[in-house]
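Question thread 4412

I'm putting together a teaching handout and wanted feedback from people who do this every day. The idea is simple: show students a protein as raw sequence, then show them the structure tokens that encode its fold, then repeat with a second protein so they can compare. Below is the first pair exactly as I plan to print it.
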Amino acid sequence: MCVGEKHYARYGIRDVLESYVADVIMPDITRGGGPREMKRMATMAEAYNVLVAPHNTNGPLSTLANSHV
């Protein structure tokens, strides 16, 4: 199951990770707090053995930012 495009910042995905309900999280870089916060979310997901697939509906600039993370 993949969730997370509407969860904001690392505090928003914490409950999802701790309850082990997702195999993949999809944080949105523009809503989630930017590249640094996205990196923090990815680090948290790694600790719970959950994959990260960035959510992107905002065009080429967000695609570039996601690829940097």
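The second pair follows. I'd like the answer to focus on this one:
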Amino acid sequence: MNPWETLTGSDLTREWKAFEARAEALPPDFREAWGQVTSHLFAYGSFTGRNLMPILDGALGLLEETAADGQRVEAVLGDDIAGFCAALAGGEGARSHRDRWREQLNRTVARKLSRLGG
């Protein structure tokens, strides 16, 4: 990957379009599951989302294999898609960007309050 692609994010756009083309070939229930997986995984992404690309590639590959084997989507994802995505992103209870921002805000407020009180 060249620096210009990294800077502009055009490599991510190209990868995302390839993911979407692969997802279009899935049966309808698998496409719906792919949409849910992507929406749940975005909460675990970095600012650019670059860290999610290998995870998304693996999840889509899993859906493709399951569809090719003629299994149901629930066989691989289960009933808890959000939990499945949390496990993919780094384990159950993985911290999302919202959790990190909340912790940062709490630290900042505590620091400001300690300056006011002392």
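Top answer:
Good format. For the second protein you could add a caption like this: The first helix runs from residue 3 to 8. The radius of gyration is 18 Å.
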